[in-house]
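This follows on from our talk about sequence and fold. Please put the record directly below this note.
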Amino acid sequence: MPRWRRSSGSSSTDLIGLDTAAANGNHGGRPLAIDGDMLAVALRRRDSKESVTAIAKHLGVGRSTLSRTLAAYDEAAATTTE
């Protein structure tokens, strides 16, 4: 019966592959739901007093996703201006 050895984490070849991919501009993970262009549209529409629900529907994303993104943007903007 073969013995299987469990890996306790990433191997060195995994890390080399990830570093190579990153050097080529490829990063793992889930793609962003709202990119920079969508955020710009959302900010303009929010400034014109449109509801988050209406903006989210227009962009084709969930209301909670848009709310989290706008909150993160507002927090980042607040920390850079202080």
Summary: DSSP finds four helices and no strands in the chain. The mean pLDDT is 88.
